[in-house]
Amino acid sequence: MGKKEAKVVNIKDIESVTLTESVRVRRLITKSRENSDKIMFGVVFVEPSNKPIEWKYNIEDEVYFILKGKVTIYCDDRKIEAKEGDAIYLPAGEKHKLINEEIETATIAYALSPPIQ
Known about the structure:
The chain is mainly β. It is 3% helix and 49% strand. The protein has one helix at 31-34, and strands at 17-20, 23-29, 40-46, 53-55, 61-68, 70-75, 78-83, 87-90, 96-99, 106-113. The strands form two sheets. A six-stranded antiparallel β-sheet has the order 1-2-3-10-5-8. Strands 4-9-6-7 form a four-stranded antiparallel β-sheet, with no helix packed on it. Strand 6 (70-75) and strand 7 form a beta hairpin. The longest helix is centred in the first third of the chain and has 4 residues, at 31-34. The radius of gyration is 14 Å and the shape is globular. The relative contact order is 0.27.
């Protein structure tokens, strides 16, 4: 890997990746592009849907910060209602489901450590 240095990444310059019919992500800071071996950062756009999206990272901790809208997160047997301004910590190994039951797109910043890509 090359030398590490400060870098500015604009969301408009990063391609949007479709994960499901209701979820798009823009991976802003990654190991492969920015040489970040400690953290990955991006923004997720969750369209209104009644289909939950499920994730589980075995060694990575994740933090969501709700920038816009509301989402429901199911962590094992717990239900978390998250709204604009809320930060949610999701420890490694905990399966979680994310759903947007509102009428507008939810926008969520996320950080993942260590990075997966």
